[in-house]
Amino acid sequence: DRFELGFNLGGYILKDKVWFFGAFLPVFRKQVRHVEWLSGDTPSDHTQKQTWWNFITKVTAQPFKDLRISASFINNWHKERGKLPSRKGTYESTTPYADYGYDFPKWAASGSMDYLCGKNLLISLRAGFFHTNICNQQYVETSPQYRWQKEAPGYQWTTTDAWDGTADEIPAEYKRPVYYISHDNNDVYNKYIQDRASINFDLNYYLTAGGEHSIKAGVQWVRREQDLDNTWNHPKIFLGWNKEFTYGSKFQHIRGKYGFYGVRGNDKTGPYGTFANPDSVRWAIYLQDSWTIGYKFTINLGVRAEKENIPSFSDLPEYQEAPIKFSFKDKISPRIGFVYDVFGDSSLKLYASYGIYYDVMKLYMAEKYYGGFKWKSSYFTLDTYKWNEIGVNNNYPGTYITTIDWGITKLNPIDPDLKPMSQQEITFGAEKKITENVAVTFRVVNKHLRYAVEDVGNPACLGLWYFICNPGYGWSLTWENGGEFPYEYPDTPKAKREYWAVNIGIEKKFSNNWMGGFSYTWSRLSGNYSGLASSDEYGRNEPNVERNFDIWFLAYDKKLNKIDGPLQTDRTHQIKVYGSYVFPFGLTLGITAYAMSGTPVSTEYKVWVDGYMPYGRGDLGRTPFLKWANLYLEYALKIGSNKLVISLNVDNVFDAKTAQRIWSMPTLENIPVCDDELMANSWNYNDYSLEPDHKFMKKMDFFPPIEARIGLKLVF
After folding, report:
1. How confident is the model at residue 161 (pLDDT cuts 50, 70, 90)?
2. Do 51 and 26 meet the contact criterion of CB atoms below 8 Å apart?
3. Where does residue 608 fall: left (phi above 0), alpha (psi -120 to 50 degrees), or beta otherwise?
4. Residue 456 and which of 11, 137, 275, 295 are 20 to 30 A apart at CA?
5. How much is the pLDDT for 323?
6. 80 Cβ contact list (under 8 Å, min separation 6)
7. What would the DSSP string read from start to end of 202-234?
8. What tens digit of pLDDT does each residue of 174-233 get?
9. Closest listed residue to residue 113, CA positions, set 102, 100, 103, 126
């Protein structure tokens, strides 16, 4: 259930001089989830309550004829109390979910000034500040967390016989299913502050010279800062029941009576999590001209240049300088486009544009690689089945194997020829007016990834040593091609993300009490790199450090062909139909309907890490075709000079239950295949007795169910 109750008010303070606007909209949301526990405990209901205090204030003033200034403040602070456990029922039912909760402060302030200097020059100044945080954590777990799964990507584990940790010699109270987690993964947020400040200064000059020119020049300054501490204050223990620990050539096939286990976040390993305070400053300069020749043809020319850095948060003296720096000459973005009114009467318009767009580097990389992220793991043989005693009172039984620093800052990890991430975009299209209220459109778009910035795993380095480079260039190539990969390995393929789309549509503007439209898009999104948020990896959105190039073979299929195919979010056909009608008695009816192709499904094996696609992309077909519709009803009731508006908004009105993803990993365990076998293609999945994942080919991520919102609005 979600309740919203608010108001807004606007007007002048001093007539023709000072104006104000304010709005207040608190939101109250309550969710109740019924969970049936896999442990067999009594099913239970759990509640989460969320509250938002949303408001905005704005004041605008025109003290002089040619000067206008404004200031605004927006608040979106909210809190949540209680946590909803997973529907899968894999955690302990005794976890105090009702005690969980956080506060989420969030606000933004901005100001602007526009000054008209004469008749041809407009001077503009903009400034803003944004702040968000996660704090006031209501409950912090202090007992160890136990997980039945692989602990880190840099080593192998293998099952030595059919025993799976549930043999008769293990008392029933200690038996747990594979992938069981002892208690909910309650993230720790001591603080998670993110700030952004910006200033823009623009000059707009209008002149006539061979046509009409609108010239704009400006400079932009942006400072971003993060102040984070989400380090765990209790250990996480990963249990490899009946598994062997294998790491490099020094630690091979080590196990105790019941396997081995790994530990993060104890006295031996130090804290686990992010402890960082990075900041970054970015400058941009730009110049553009909109040049209209005659009354039919307008050409737009522009160029933008930026400089930025990615900071370090390392205690090591050699890492005090910003590890990544891009100068103005590294990020020059040309833009060109035109609009042609063929007959000069706005009945037929042709347009096209070309541009290069650079990504703004995120601070996540500074947290992850340059001293912010702390992660050491210690490994022991598992010689007792009493798993719930491990880590209690600093008790770590078994034989100590080794401690590995998975988050260590490496020397010189950045390709000196690193180029910023950029994309090229080309668009052309046409708009034709059929009648005064009906028009058809045609548009073609191509988006081409020029360079990606990613962490590329080097197979010559033992452990988690990633190079920050452009996949397919520089260090990501083999030694013979000027890179850092050993000769026996293939070059890292270029990051590819290619998008083509053709769109046609027809639209009728509102007249005779109705409006409507139809559009169809054919598109193709293909390559080997899904972007800053990896749609290949379920739920992962860590920019510039995705899985795609972490290990050399992830970019190749079983036959060592470069993987290239439809990406996870590719939808070949997309249809949209919309319209509304206003009845004579005051009722407005609107509907929007969508239909689109399913997304590709690809077989994924676990070889060291998830995500290896031995048969390429899309070998398992696609998810089902997705169709849904939204409905809107509104009735305005006049009450004297006032108006009461009653509305009903229904999303997914036909309650579609289409699966948007299909689980594509056939096994729970890693395939114990080495680099030599992968490069020789001398292995077969059926040669291994691996524990199957019973979720394989099961539907998941179903389209959200029908949702109705009822609204009342009084206008006075």
Report:
1. very low
2. yes
3. left
4. 275
5. 84
6. 48, 49, 50, 51, 101, 102, 104
7. EEEEEEESSSEEEEEEEEEEEEEEEEEE---SS
8. 877 666 777 766 678 888 999 999 999 999 999 999 999 999 999 999 999 999 888 887
9. 126
Q: Which residues pair with 71 in a beta bridge?
A: 59, 111
The type of residue at 567 is: L
User: Residue 515: how many CB atoms within 10 A of its CB?
Assistant: 17
How do beta strands 67-81 and 101-104 pair?
A: antiparallel
The alpha carbon of 44 is separated from its chain's Cα centroid by a whole number of angstroms, namely: 32
For 394-491, strand residue ranges (E) read: 400-405, 422-433, 438-451, 454-457, 466-469
The pTM assigned to this predicted structure is 0.86
Work out the pLDDT band at 154, boundaries 50, 70, 90: low
- Strand pairing report for 101-104 and 145-147: unpaired
Question: How far apart, in Å, are the Cα atoms of 466 and each of 463, 476, 679?
Answer: 9, 10, 21
Residue 324 tokens read as: 């990544």
One-letter amino acid for residue 413 of the chain: P
Tokens of 169: 């010699």
Q: What is d(CA 447, CA 453) in angstroms, rounded to the nearest whole number?
A: 17
- Label residues 335-355 b or e (16+ Cβ within 10 Å = b): bebbbebeeeeeeebbbebeb
Tally DSSP H helices, then E strands, for the chain. Answer: 2, 41
């209220």: which residue's tokens?
437
Instruction: Compute the Cα dihedral for 684, 686, 687, 692 and give only its sign.
Output: positive
- Token pair of 313, please? 């948060």
Mean pLDDT of the chain: 90
